[in-house]
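Lecture 7 notes: from sequence to structure.
We start with the chain below.
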Amino acid sequence: QVQLVESGGGLVQAGGSLRLSCAASGSIFSINRMGWYRQAPGKQRELVASTASDGSTNYADYVKGRFTISRDNAKNTVYLQMNSLKPEDTAVYYCNAALFTAARRYLELWGQGTLVTVSS
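Predicted structure tokens for the same chain:
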């Protein structure tokens, strides 16, 4: 069984920083893409940042220069370093991954979500 486990959310004041982690566990052959989405109350889920197997990255315009996505392939883990946090960043952050299992089955998975609250 393959699953994603997130950690690192919490309460922080505006201007502060948090680092989110998402670890993929199980019988994994390769991970093609990992990324972070967020969903605020009453809002649609939206892409924050993603990284592909070739090392390329993609960021939402509103986080460019503040957030950095990185990946540790040896640990099957993706991170989201969030700096200069704003109250509008408050949301539940979800990890997403597209991968092949050891049996070469393609899966797209979501983490359980981790809450980030930024106070003013």
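Points to note: The chain is about 0% helix and 60% strand. The chain has a mean pLDDT of 96.
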